[in-house]
Amino acid sequence: MVCVFGLNGRHCFMAFIEEILNHRSLAIVGMEKNTGKTECLNYILSQIKDMDRQFALTSVGIDGEKRDQVCRTPKPEIEVPEGMIFVTSEKHYGEKRLTAEVLDVCEERTALGRLVIARAKSSGKVLLSGPSATVELRKLMGHLEDFGVQTTIVDGALSRLSLASPAVTEAMILATGAALSGNIPQLVRSTRYVYELIGLEQVEEELRGRLEDLARGVWAVSESGEVIDLHLPSVFMLEKSGVDIFKYGRRLYIAGAVSDQLLTFLRAQTEPTELMIRDFTRMFATPASYYAFLRKGGNIRVLQKSQLVAVTINPQSPAGFCLDSDRLKRAMEESLQIPVYDVRKMDHLKVC
User: Fold this and answer.
1) Residues 199/166, Cβ–Cβ less than 8 Å
2) pLDDT tens, 88-145?
3) Which residues are bridge partners to 227 per DSSP?
4) How many Cβ atoms from other residues are within 10 Å of residue 247's Cβ?
5) Could you tell me which of 4, 94, 68, 1 has the C-alpha nearest to residue 343?
6) CA 335, CA 110: separation in Å to the nearest integer?
7) Quick one: residue 297, left, alpha or beta (phi over 0 = left, psi -120 to 50 = alpha)?
8) Which of 259, 263, 305, 339 could form a disulfide with 6 if both were Cys (CB 3.0 to 4.6 A apart)?
9) Which DSSP string do the residues of 301-345 spell out, in sequence order?
10) Is 187 helix (H, G, I), strand (E, B) or coil?
11) What is the pTM of this model?
């Protein structure tokens, strides 16, 4: 078992890896580019390669390149272990640096060709370029189960928190770091905001069942639990529509995105509102608007709740500066009250 020192003494790091085994799908998402997603992924792959479980690996967008396409800074490449199933485009499959067996070629095309599902026959480097949309990703993960895949790991692209939606993957790892902010208090505040959104309370099961199939619009939920269509296709029409959205009570379900404009409108009402949304990735409001809404007595709940497996930090910024790792880790753990891992130190963890 692998252990590190954490918030309340010694935390067994192997629990981080074991938690992954409890899920059929896991997304590794970064709050910004260069926050350590690929290093985290490579560490996970090194720990699970000999386990008696079939894993698959893919990406939303392109990942695994030697140099960051935005900052032009060097990046760690993805090391696929022998036996791992991976999915990438035809173009990047042809550029792989390992021996592999093709299991299937999907009919759907991407900008880089069709998606190739393959099994690594030797360990080596590969550039991942998977589906570009979450709907396609869900379909792909279902297809991977046909090849005995028990857990699919999805490496995200820039700002693609949407792939961590519970509608796509069951669990997630959140990567944050100095690339987001060089100021530790600000970095902790920004990360805590996303952490709190991930932890939003879930709507009761009975009501959840009545709301899940509502893909668009604004809906009222009466005190008796009746769901009423307010005939508003968009929240941006609230103020101009003249519709009394509170005619049936103070509970609303928003099927789309939640913006600053919406929270400002609700905050201006004389009574607090309970807002229900599909999942945390629908929240596009700034932290200032979100917390102001809560202070006014508002409440936000979700239909689908995400399972956060871990938070990782990368103290190194692509701009060249490096934060104090221990200080950042300590501040993050004190704020989040969960173990936090420095991706740069993962390879140095000692076996107990």
Assistant:
1) no
2) 999 999 999 999 999 999 988 888 899 999 999 999 999 998 887 788 889 999 999 9
3) 221
4) 10
5) 4
6) 41
7) left
8) 339
9) EESS--EEEEEEEE-B-TTS-B--HHHHHHHHHHHH-S-EEEGGG
10) helix
11) 0.86
Query: Which of 43, 8, 44, 34 shows the shortest CA–CA distance to 340?
Result: 8
Residue 23's nearest CA partner among 37, 44, 8, 38 is: 44
Distance CA 237, CA 252 (A): 15
Tokens read off for 330: 């300590």
Q: Which helix (H) or strand (E) holds 88?
A: strand 85-89
Structure-token pair, residue 201: 């309370």
Q: Is 78 exposed, middle or buried (0-12, 13-18, 19+ CB in 10 A)?
A: buried
Which residues, 6 or more positions from 144, have their beta carbon under 8 angstroms from its beta carbon? 56, 85, 87, 117, 152
Least confident range of 67-76, 159-168, 172-181, 282-291 = 67-76
In single-letter form, the type of residue at position 40 comes to C
